[in-house]
Write the structure tokens for this entry.
Amino acid sequence: MITQAPDINIVETIAKIHIDNIARVERVAEGVSTFVYRIKTRDQTFYMRFLPEDWADFEPEVIVLNTLYDKGVKVPNVIFWESKNPDVGMSMMLCSEIPGDSVNNNRPNANDLHQILFDAGKQSALIHTVPVDGFSWIERNIKGRLAGEKKTFDGYFMQHLEESLQVMEQNHFSDSDKTLITDLMKKARKALNIENAVLVHGDFDETHIFHLNGQYTGIIDFGEIRGNNRLFDLALFVAFNPKDFKYLVKGYNEIYPLSSDDLYNTELMALFYLVHKFAKKVDTPKKDFWLELVNKQLNRIKSYPAI
């Protein structure tokens, strides 16, 4: 793991090889899993990212972005990438900007929001047409293809489930809710199990859906791509943005119609995800945040007609 970000002068030198008339290069503080720099010319903005793990490679993400771009999904366009840049010793990727701001940061009016989410729903369905060899996180050190860490969905689903349910037993849930969560996870294991994984964004919520003046402009941040059931991204969205979910679904249905069973199974997947997150965060200051989300999701399922 490389802990020191590349010197901004080195970043500018690398950028000048690929971009003319650079006006400014600046470090972007929002980068969590990568070192991110914003590069501005007079009329364009680009982003350069570096992977701090010296074994990791941007190639899988480049494959994803190029594939989606060719499908007409509005994602950043890859200008250049390297498995390992010789000046910094890290994998590097240079991309164009998706203009505007996220729906989360810059809330449009209701009519525009509904259309933006409709458009994003259609595009998320296209993301889910890309096959992945295996489930869970996309391997960052495999060349030429998209491969998940686990060979089967069940291997992914069961990897940490027992320990997560044990955390449930020890924390802030009634006996009836503990039993219900366990039963729902058994139901989810069966209902969500599929043979072949598809690409999912992996962090799909309103912070990554962009618009400019109320017009949809694209989806950003493919740093958490995975192979999974296509309902995974929908589950993340409903977990964090339940009030707006119906507008996303309307767009999704234009490309890939969702049955009532699909919608119920999306709720199960959301609970599965939140139970795991709560178990991981139980000893951190974020505990109450995740506890609240688990309870809200459980209440949604309790009120769902299918239960």
Summary: The chain has a mean pLDDT of 95. Residues 8-96 form a domain with the Phosphorylase Kinase; domain 1 fold (CATH 3.30.200.20). The CA atoms of residues 111 and 214 lie 9 Å apart.
